[in-house]
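Anyone up for a design puzzle?
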């Protein structure tokens, strides 16, 4: 079976939000993104490089339940210090979040003001690893002991990574990226057939008792999580829904993109040309933008050029 290029990663997450101004304040002040630019009701955010998050404001949008769509998108920060900064900032503001120790990663979970799920995490493979069986997910600590992988995070230990005088309001560092996305789907087998069988991601395992599956590229623990927690057979959210519009799968070059598009077309799927790449949808209506590293970086390059011309 053809595999997706091992350097493939998740690039940008695009959401519909009901209240753009409120969400912009949240993502800048509490999460730490910078506003790259704004085009009327569309805002582009990141950490000064490529766009990591795009918000489409639609006051008429509604939140639906029991549908496929976004469970959460995951912001990967470079180390525990930066995770500590985000969690401390959220706690200082009294914003609800749920710090969790997955052993191999340290994380916190929260929702934006319109109910879109977010994870902010850092890698901690020195503490252990994820284990996936046909039935369940768990974690194995470095000393060999087992964990359910969902322990409360030791915040006292985490906050020791902050230094005296650290500015809790400092924005996310430029090394920040979107680490993975986690999706609600209506059928795990059909979802894995799409992301593994067609796109070519590695199948990291289907945990049937946990009703979850994971796929990735290049040996990463997971770039895409899949679950049926909204119910088997969950239907796509209506077009006026708050939530995921699409996320981008960034391939390293045009040849790698062509290989994936060839497999997509062989399955009688029709990619839609888009300025950001080629848009397709999984069997549950989740939008996937297939693109290349150059296309993904292009908006940042244009922005740099504009800044240079303005000097």
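Challenge accepted. My sequence:
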């Amino acid at each position: 079976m053809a595999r997706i290029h091992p350097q493939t990663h998740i690039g940008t997450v695009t959401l519909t939000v009901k209240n753009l101004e409120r969400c912009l304040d949240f993502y800048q002040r509490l999460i730490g993104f910078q506003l790259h630019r704004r085009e009327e009701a569309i805002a582009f955010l990141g950490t000064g490089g490529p766009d990591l998050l795009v918000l489409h404001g639609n006051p008429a949008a509604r939140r639906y339940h029991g549908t496929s769509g976004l469970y959460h998108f995951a912001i990967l920060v470079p180390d525990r210090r930066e995770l500590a900064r985000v969690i401390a900032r959220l706690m200082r503001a009294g914003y609800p979040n749920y710090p969790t120790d997955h052993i191999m990663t340290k994380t916190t979970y929260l929702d934006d003001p319109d109910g879109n799920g977010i994870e902010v995490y850092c890698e901690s493979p020195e503490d252990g690893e994820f284990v996936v069986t046909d039935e369940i997910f768990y974690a194995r600590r470095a000393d060999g002991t087992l964990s359910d992988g969902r322990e409360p995070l030791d915040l006292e230990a985490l906050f020791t990574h902050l230094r005296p005088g650290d500015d809790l309001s400092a924005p996310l560092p430029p090394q920040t990226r979107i680490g993975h996305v986690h999706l609600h789907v209506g059928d795990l087998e059909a979802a894995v057939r799409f992301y593994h069988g067609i796109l070519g991601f590695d199948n990291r395992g289907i945990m049937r008792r946990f009703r979850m599956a994971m796929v990735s590229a290049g040996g990463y623990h997971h770039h895409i999580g899949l679950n049926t927690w909204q119910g088997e057979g969950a239907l796509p959210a209506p077009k006026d829904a708050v939530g995921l519009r699409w996320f981008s799968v960034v391939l390293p070059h045009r040849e790698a993109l062509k290989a994936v598009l060839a497999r997509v077309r062989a399955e009688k799927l029709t990619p839609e040309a888009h300025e950001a790449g080629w848009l397709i949808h999984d069997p549950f209506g989740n939008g996937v933008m297939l693109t290349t590293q150059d296309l993904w970086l292009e908006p940042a390059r244009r922005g740099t050029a504009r800044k240079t011309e303005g000097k």
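A detail worth pointing out: The chain has six helices and 20 strands.
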